[in-house]
Amino acid sequence: MKILVVGGGGREHAIIKKLKQSPAVTEIYAAPGNGGIAQDAACVDLKATDIEGITAFAVEQKMDYVVVAPDDPLVLGMVDALAEKGIPAFGPRKLAARLEGSKVFSKNLMKKYGIPTADYAVFDDAEKAMEYIQSKNEYPVVIKADGLALGKGVLICESEQQAKDGLKSMMEDKIFGKSGSTVVVEEFLTGPEVSVLSFTDGKTVKPMVSSMDHKRALDNDEGLNTGGMGTIAPNPYYTPEVAQQCMETIFLPTIRAMQQEGCPFTGCLYFGLMLTPKGPKVIEYNCRFGDPETQVVLPLLESDLFTIMQATTNGTLEQTEVVFSNQNAACVILASGGYPQKYESGKLISGLVNGQLADGSAQVYHAGTKQTAEGLVTAGGRVLGVTATQDTLQGAIKAAYAAADQISFEALHRRSDIGKRALQAYES
Ligand code: AMP
Ligand code: GLY
Prior knowledge:
CATH superfamily of the largest domain: ATP-grasp fold, B domain
Shape: globular
Radius of gyration: 21 Å
Low-confidence stretches: none
Largest sheet: 6 strands, antiparallel
Distance between the termini: 48 Å
Bound molecules: adenosine monophosphate, glycine
Number of domains: 4
């Protein structure tokens, strides 16, 4: 089987590494891939959002299967475009990808089908939004851009003034472009966050092992929101009881709702959950694997990833085995100093041989690297993800940091407390 993976980050590297273990997979291509992915797949210089270019390439090269990993090509309808050419692909159709592509769509769906989420109201007028916020007079208040905003479209406003400024920057200054023309104003929820990625063929849903992201740039959850600075799996707050409750009140109702709406969701549906005092609630849906959640979840997958992916496309997920190991995984992201704001690229990376650690103590997933005549250099905000797998969470965290210590580049930034909150959950 000849497979094309669309995307070029750490998530895609983790997907490719896992697909390589499938006996059916003989050739893997990545578009665009990156310097480290090039060790595991043939990289093709096409942008992940180039629907026409990628579809034409897949047809020309007679791809047997395409995995569309990032949100934007999914929301733009890449899976539909490939299907028109008779090429099966992993990921939702355009209409189903609205679960992530439009916050208004997902919030309205949850309301209609009684799926627990934060109370909200939708506005396309900044003044009306402000009147609503003033009438509620409860802070913090959450303001979200309707459309995709590179994971940055959520503002948590502590005061009336912050809300005013936030609305202005989204709706008038358009810092997120058209994505912010419509906003969702939402109740602020509290509680531990859990990421649950799941496989679904539109009828059956099989959750993967749970995980915990660390979104803020600095230790103790301080600093700006990022794409994610590290992850651990499983998430200790996600007990079997909570999992059962989520299945009944959130996962199955969402799958059924999408079916009822005539846009069944296939691929990986990511549930961003908050375990509030009033039970688990949906913070967000993503229509794809999380990054860097994938870098701790897939290493724990014991079943064959390619078989599962095909089952989501063929509608045979119910009969397909999805089994995870009982181990724990931790991933520490090595980022460029300054990320998620301005940072420099082109810094020489030392400590790796062919993109991996010589001692094999951890798996290194490449997020933003480039191969040059001088060697491997940084080429993005998030540069590498270092994942260790061990019997205990404590062991996995220790091993991931010990492995990360072997890697360096100028102005490297990482958090030093990945997994700390999860360990506290075990202690309490
Ligand atoms: P998102 O980009 O939707 O993942 O949101 C980024 C982060 O904002 C989430 O991981 C939460 O920590 C936080 N967040 C989003 N919505 C809410 C909410 N209603 N209440 C509290 N925190 C939220
Ligand atoms: N790590 C969060 C996300 O992938 O959206």
